[in-house]
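User: For my dataset I need records formatted as: sequence, then structure tokens, nothing else. Please produce one.
Assistant:
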Amino acid sequence: MPTAQLEVDSPKIESPKRFRLGLLMLLPTGLWLTIFMLAPVAILVVFSLGSRDSLGHVVLAFRPDNYVRFFEGPYLLTLFRSLTLATTTTIACLLLGFPCAMWLAFSVSPKKQQLFVTLLTVPLWISFLLRIYAWITILRPTGILPSVFRSMGFDPPPMLYNQGAILLGMVYNYLPYMILPLYSTLEKLDRRLLEASRDLGADSWTTFCRVMVPMSTRGIVAGIIMVFVPSLGDYITPELMGGAKTMYIGSLIQNQFLVVHDWAFGSAVSTILLALVGVGIWVYLKYGEGDVQRH
């Protein structure tokens, strides 16, 4: 009996040690997150409540003047324009990425899938700026594509420094982030469910809408988040491929920090952008995750 009692009580004795060991193992990650994520966000929030002196220095005042300035000024149009561009980019990436992911998952042999996935990720190894300048070289008036059209006897319209060029650059840069999670989800899909749907008389479109899309919801949501969040704050693509003709929220933040040197207002705009992204992710985790798991 004493031996049995000792064996029963031993896990209770070791559990505090395991708990302390777990905390010790999490300490490096906690320090990393505190130093490189929580601390910068805290500094951003503190600066956003300050003001700017005549020399461009931040004066801590703890007043919401910068937030009032944002919501009462013309900057809401900039935010709406950025939301529209990010939404359009996400929809375009989803419409293009889903067929590509289906082709990789269902039509390519397992031996070649890794090759095509590698080719899909190779552009991500190249500098973001180099990829943008490559498209500028292709689309500018003396570039490759307009020259091809002129050689065929066509007078091409301007292909650069417009909204179409911005959308093209955004979709090109963020499309892999949509395809990869979709491909990962579709590859694990039980093919027997698709066969059962066809055996029960469903056509290809019904099988796609009623079986494939609901079963791949997790990949769809992951791809939407991975595309929408960075595209909302992107300022390099609109600046270079749009010719800086239209102000977006990322361009506004960059302008406040590096041109106007109004760090207080730039911090307020950055905080608003972080809050919008955080609220969107929180809503998904709270209400959308359960729907994804049920599918």
